[in-house]
Design brief:
The structure is a homodimer of 219-residue chains. With 219 residues, chain A is an all-alpha fold. Chain A is built from 11 helices and no strands. Chains A and B meet through helix 6, helix 7, helix 8, helix 9 and helix 10 of A and helix 6, helix 7, helix 8, helix 9 and helix 10 of B. The first copy, chain A, binds a DNA duplex (30 and 30 nucleotides) through helix 2 and helix 3.
DNA sequence: ACCTGGATGGAACGCTGTTCCATAAGTGTG
DNA sequence: CACACTTATGGAACAGCGTTCCATCCAGGT
């Protein structure tokens, strides 16, 4: 006979860090950054919030693992045979695509210092430049620019996604900011409202690549 | 005769948004991002947390205003007579210096989409390039790269400052991340641990400027 | 002297991440 | 097979957060 105060049934499939992280990614993708709480996570896994801490250190641990998983799945398939410039374009745009699909990744990459995926990207970029005969110092400078550039784009993209999820109008948001700047003309605002972010990123990368080529000519 | 349950004395100097924001900056600078709460703010102003909401919409409002104030005080003194390249270097390094002095600004710039200071910077950069005879399209691409680049650096810098405030060793943090990447050689890691961030930013800006010059030659 | 509306300060609400602990399940040992 | 022991579990409890609510107070106009 069961006692009057009965516990909820124990789950049959085992809990694990992988399962927790996978579920976290589900929540983040479908309901946004704000929806990821240990209570929501526990509810979806039919367990208590305390149980999660046996597999995971804390919330940052979950976010770190989730970010790593998403980035790894996109960086991992880099082509070694392409021309260095093409390879670098593909690497950077790969990060963008990952963030486009999972905006919360952008926020997380900007929130924690030197996450492993960022170091991987740094090395990958430097390696392609090395293969192209670029001076070591320039390799480093260029990788720094490209990584931080895409990081900045990522943060901005994630912030916009967050604001939009709150029910704001995409262009209205930007227009409001522009109009707030008491009467100054802004040659930039018009372009910002109508441009394609991915195409803009590609153009930016090409600009940096042009700089690398220029510095390679006369070191 | 005062009643048994007496209220605390009402403050003599008037509360205002400016006062609240100034106090918020004090807290952020001296105790870090995590220390800024409405309760701490109220305590320092000798008032209740509810009173603050008569002058300020919410916490984001305070952070936005604080960020705007810090950035404005550094951007504002830009030199109009310098060579375009020097002016741009000064603009970008000015943002870096502001973030170096107030790391929380870096986190805030990355957290909200298209804040006014960022648009101002965008326009200022584009304007210098316009004066230098750079094609309009390149103006936009270059401004995009530079703004997002410094934004990425800012986010990373703020994240590192946050981690360091938690009592971590600067280089140990990075070394741990490097060693986590099972055995891969990392030509980049050694450089990262010992480089000067500001000097690195300057080198990155120079690389972008080289790209602009290259594209100006053959459009 | 009165009224009234904005400013004030503190309590209360709902939510968060995290810790604690009684309990249930699995595992190796005699 | 029975027992101890380790580990996993789930839910309650805690401290702290942003925000809302409201009784109260003060200043200025009538």
């Amino acid at each position: 006979m069961t006692p009057a105060k009965q516990r909820a049934a124990r789950r049959s499939d085992a809990l694990s860090k992988d399962l927790i992280v996978a579920t976290a990614i589900e929540i983040l993708d479908s309901e946004g950054e704000g929806a990821l709480t240990f209570r929501a996570l526990a509810r979806r896994l039919s367990t208590g919030s305390g149980a999660l801490y046996h597999h995971v250190a804390n919330k940052d641990d979950v976010l770190r693992a989730a970010t790593g998983q998403v980035i790894a799945s996109t960086t991992h398939k880099s082509e070694h045979d392409a021309a260095p410039a093409d390879a670098i374009r593909a690497l950077i745009l790969g990060i963008f695509d990952a963030i486009d699909a999972h905006p919360w990744v952008g926020a997380q990459l900007a929130r924690e210092p030197w996450q492993v995926p960022l170091l991987d990207l740094f090395d990958a970029v430097a390696e392609r430049l090395d293969a192209d005969g670029v001076a070591e110092r320039t390799q480093f400078d260029a990788a720094s620019v490209l990584v931080h550039y895409v990081l900045g784009v990522a943060a901005q993209y994630a912030a916009a996604a967050r604001a939009l999820a709150g029910g704001a109008d995409p262009s209205a948001l930007l227009r409001a900011a522009v109009e707030q700047r008491a009467g100054e003309r802004s040659p930039v605002a018009a372009r910002l409202t109508e441009h394609d972010d991915r195409e803009q990123l590609r153009a930016g990368v090409d600009l940096v690549l042009a700089g690398i080529a220029a510095l390679k000519g006369r070191p």
